[in-house]
What does this fold into?
Amino acid sequence: MQLTQGFADPAIEAARVFRIVLDAMSHPARIVTLPEIDAPAPCSPAAAAVLLTLVDGTTPLHLAGAHDCEAMRDWVRFHLGAPLVGPQDAAFALGIWDALGPLSAYPQGSAEYPDRAATLIVDDMALRSKGARLTGPGIAHEAFLSLPDVAALQVNAAQFPRGVDFLFASGAQLAALPRSTQIGGA
Amino acid sequence: MTEYNFAYLDEATKRMLRRAILKAVAIPGYQVPFSSREMPMPYGWGTGGVQVTAACLVPEDTLKVIDQGADDTTNAVSIRKFFARVAHVATTEATAEASVIQTRHRIPERPLTDGQILVFQVPIPEPLRFLEPRETETRTMHALEDYGLMQVRLYEDIARHGEIARAYAYPVRVEGRYIMDPSPIPKFDNPKLDNSPALQLFGAGRESRIYALPPHTRVESLDFEDYPFTASKAAGQRCAICGAEDSYLDEVITDDAGGRMFVCSDTDYCATRVAAQAEDAA
It folds into this structure.
């Protein structure tokens, strides 16, 4: 078994990655670039950096589709120690859009505790600043982002304050779509 | 071993804080419960703000800490020194130079910019707490958007005092959804919360709550059509040091014969103005 390296200097590198992720989450549709982290295929460097920064033994993780491979499971066990679970118990999920399946399968939070909802890391996206028109908190006037399935994401946003939050990864690039963002047509 | 871990807290704690902060940003105005840690300072000294700041700092940051607008009070100086020691960040008193600003009870006068983070220290995060002491009830009220009690409270103020008698911690509505306590900032600062280009994070250590206002979030101070909100301060006064009429003023008693003066609460704003005036005169 061959394992790739995680953060060389965990405290400092996790801090830098978090600040970039925070920048993305507080500016939906803003495309940010994360440091290059080696992870087993098919996991992108951006998704690996997010996992190393946010996921640990207290956060159940769902690996979907091709991401649920032996190499990735070994990497998660060694670097994160996160329990691997099905979508219904996941705090975080990782996979390509089609593999992640219906959004309603993931914890949506309750009316009393909307924070108890999953964060989905959608890997291997084609991130472009065009497509669906986005408005809401974090966006000055309007922003545009290529989204995988506008109708499903509109249903998610309509549940606010319940709903799941998204991190879209592509190589070392990342963009966020929190549930608070209103999604117009493409 | 003589060094602390970067930014004092252990990595598992910072991951927990970071997850809570991201959920807070995704649900503007909602108070996310988190597992507050003991910090090397007493509750009430900004342990919530310190934990949020510790979770956000990177070594490249320049940190500013203010207490009631002042950079030079005990609380501000000790928190600034704390992070200079445990995170090796640069510190500043200039609002424009800071990338992260931790504040107790003020928003700087100088407009904040994209990329800056303002971290508020919060004593009581629940705006409905003094109306309904039970957490189970206030949680349900937020879930159901049942905010009539707050409007009644503001109405009773008008019936008794002729105006909404709240000078600080004036409640706001975030994006038309959650009612939020903006921490005990004077209501003069409330308009600065609205549509700010900076990210605003709120940390309550004793009460174990984190909440957030992403940039460009709509924040409205609660009021009535016939009693609109006004961002008031000491009327008809100007700063005795820099002459500013547009800044929030502190009243300073100067003797025991009724003598008093008003000075800017924001010490950086005041000092910057005084320096500019000295340059103009020279």
Observations:
- The mean pLDDT of chain A is 96.
- The first strand of chain A starts at residue 32 and ends at 33.
- The two ends of chain A are 45 Å apart (CA to CA).
- The longest helix of chain A spans residues 10-26.
